[in-house]
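REVIEWER CHECKLIST
Item 1: Sequence provided? yes
Item 2: Single chain? yes
Item 3: Sequence as submitted:
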Amino acid sequence: MSESPIYQSKFTVYVVLCWILAAFGGLMFGYDIGISGGVTAMDDFLIEFFPKVHERKMHAKEDNYCKYDDQFLQLFTSSLYLAALVSSFAASKICSKFGRKRTILAASVAFLLGAALSSGAVNIGMLIFGRVFLGVGVGFGNEAVPLFLSEIAPVQYRGAVNILFQLFVTIGIFIANLVNYATLKMHPYGWRVSLGLAGVPAIILFIGSLIITETPASLVERGQNERGHRTLRKIRGVEDVEAEFQQIVIASEVAQGVKHPFKELMKRSSRPPLIIAVSLQVFQQFTGINAIMFYAPVLFQTMGFKNDASLLSSVITGLVNVFSTLVSVFSVDKFGRRILLLQACVQMLISQTAIGVILYLHLHATDSLTKSQAIIVVALVCLYVMAFAWSWGPLGWLIPSETFPLETRTAGFAFAVSSNMLCTFIIAQAFLSMLCGMHAGIFFFFAAWILVMGVFVLFLLPETKNVPIDAMVETVWKKHPVWKKFM
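Item 4: Structure as written out by the authors:
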């Protein structure tokens, strides 16, 4: 596949600041992923809102795999993602009409309201309502931030810059695990502190949304060509941006002819990026990663860890998650997207299968793993998280953000975000029940999905390294052996 020309650019302090401030949208998302699992394992929280689950947890002879099986407890985690699913389509419209910058601002406001409501909750209705506001923040942030990062990054660094979003997600998860570990013994309001601190990244994102620039593509798309040209010069740090700007203008002119982008997505020529985007989101969640990240403390308690030991194990996996994502930042634009995804499939498949075998053989309804077996399981979880963190985690967001043409970009990415949120909702709502019903078999279930993912990447995913966003159709889709038939 031939690569398109690389446009001139250099790093500036301002553009790096824009990348970092926008990426706090990922930190908001990650903090919630990490915080909810720790909070649902806290006795004070369970006594306040889910007393039946707490009673079941205290039963010495209760089935290890079923002690947390409660639909309302799962709804506490999953309601956020249902709200994010719906709000991502509204976010798409706002992103197109008002720009990426204002959509990021709206995300921070919604997340602040959600943090305030959930941390101050006095009944389950208020708690869930707070989660819904957090979901709106996640829907808006996950729609706007990856698009912002992809559109503002120089093509040769686009992968690394976009992965800042996922890097900050992993930092958010790690910080949440540390917070949960610290608040576990703050009786009886530790859980309120954990939930309330979600407001901190939201405040930083709010301030950041006032500082960052709008993307040139968004400005041109909304008829502000002169401002778009100035912005492009500013973020590229060079005066000669004419070739890149003309490509943005041409893409915008094509986009202007499309009055109904969601209808445009249904056309045959739009199917390749849409199928890729939706499939990657489904696969990203059915690796089982969020089953582990949401419920890591619960999962480790199931294996026989005490409260503080299970949270400490979550901190360890969170730290592995952060450092492994850095591998992707430095390798994605060097080695490409496909090789990282394929390598990770092999590593995750081995890890998930080994965990399933150990639990099937040694963890039954009322016993627990030995110390050495538990350490092996934690090590395997770390190997699994490591592989996900440098592949399916960041690339699941990067590839959809860079493959749609401008005329369907926000609409297409809305489908990607909503697909991700739908699958996240399904996993969050069903995992504890699946764990109860399938026991160790749940790890074999996720391992089978990983096998399917590898085959998909091998035959259907094109390489997009070093290809300008607005040249994808000519450079990628029209030259792929399968997808060219749709063009």
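Item 5: Key structural point noted by reviewer: The mean pLDDT is 87.
Item 6: Recommendation: ____
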